[in-house]
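As described in the Methods, two query proteins were run sequentially through the folding procedure within a single session, without resetting any intermediate state between them. The first query and its resulting structure tokens are shown here.
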Amino acid sequence: MTRFRLVVLGAGFFSRKWIETIKASPDSEVVGIASRSRSVAEGLKRDFDLAGATLYSGWEEALDLSKADGIIVTLPQMLHPEAVVRALRSGLHVLCEKPLAVDMSGARAVLEETRKYPDRVVMVNQNFRWRPHIQTMRRGIREGLVGRIGHILFECRQQIRRKTVDAWREKMPEPYLLDFAIHHFDLIRYLTGDEVARAVGLGFRPSWSWFEGNSAATAIFTLRGGTLVDYGGTMVSPGAETPQEGLITVIGEKGTLRLDEASQVTLHGQGDTRTLSQDPIHGGELGHALAEFLAAIREKRQPETHVAEHIRSLAISLAVVESSRQGRWVEIAGQL
């Protein structure tokens, strides 16, 4: 079977992760890398033994000249909408890192463009979904282990010091809500199978933060089914870090499910505490994402995290940003 040809746009941290994932896949290959830094791109080509890969001086050149079947977008977030739209017009399938955009106008522009090209697959990577403990917690909720959910507590503490190209993340007005917390907001939807109806929250910058913008946030959400979510997180924790997914406690009428510091999911309130078994994710979270992307192309269907699906998670982040600025509850429907 002919391997799917991919060009990676960007040459930073996640570009390296994606190249590693593609190299491990029998169904795809890296045929190009686009970066403004020739030396960095050459380093990737050398490190991963990509002798046949073409190096492009920028993502625009790659879209104009490459003979690829699809692209992986790992560019700074503010460039995502333009890169995705241009890729679609160039006849390419797209797998884009989250978020698709930093505002709803950019996301809507991409959504409208996808409707013009129904034969092209556009997928946004929400990789936290495809981790064994998240799958286990979701399965427990879906199997009714805690019954009807009334309350969810969600806490995340990270210390994110990894630098970005031209410090684009370090300079963002809302780095926590738009670059990191969107993972958690997507998980709220994914785990519960419910949608957030409204949000109230506050983004803020601790005095010791190394980010220019708000690097922490607190929020309360109400879901359509009535569940209340109490959320808090930071990307500048001096210590006592949690896993990236955070600590998640799901309280229902029949018991409580908890994702703990060791990424174990335990069931409480039904006699002895029970730890739920976890199944490995074949290929890891990025391997799963790549497999889903390629399967959607082969099967001519939408991927799990298609554009419209992702926008529902992005809308939550944007609602908290608006709530923080206006000091009021914000309806999620008003963001869509």
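Immediately afterward, the second query was submitted; its sequence and tokens are:
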Amino acid sequence: MDIQRATLSDILYFRPRELSKEEWSRLESGKGVMELRRPLEEARLPGGWAGLRNKILAEAGGLLDIRLLDVMRWAWKKGRELEAYRDTERYPPDKTFSVPLVEHKITSTHTPHVDIQLNGKKMGSIHFAVTIEIAIKAMTLEIRNARIKKIHAGDCKATGRFLCEGLLLAERESKPLDLPGTIDLGEGQEI
């Protein structure tokens, strides 16, 4: 898998599946779904909640269209271990610095939701959670002017979980990700 194109969807390999009665029961007992079911039933929509629930899960995969490389960039921007490189006296902007990441883990949680509207009015939301952990070994970052300009090859593997209203939809560990010799970030990612 090419890390420059890999998305959370590729890592989790989420494919909508038919949930068991027990899984639907657990999902439907959640606060968000309970609050949504009532107005849908009152509106007497054809199919009501039952007609909508499979459509929501079918569309849920689109919530995972986030590039893995972007998750890494966001984490490095927030991370304290690279914060020192913002100091222009210690790290002059006209010089390039190589920063080895011997062993490094990035954990990121995303909490997207799908708003359900009826006649332009929000009826409720279905909440999802995505947790991803990226294990990096022997990678080097090239930093210049408080920006990550290049990523030099190392080993990278990711694991992830995808939940809907607390119900586990997918969980997976990736195979090692294909890291090219160098990933050039152009203008770079600000630290």
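Strands lie at 96-110, 113-118, 121-144, 147-152, 155-164, 167-173, 182-190. We note this only descriptively and draw no conclusion about the first query from it.
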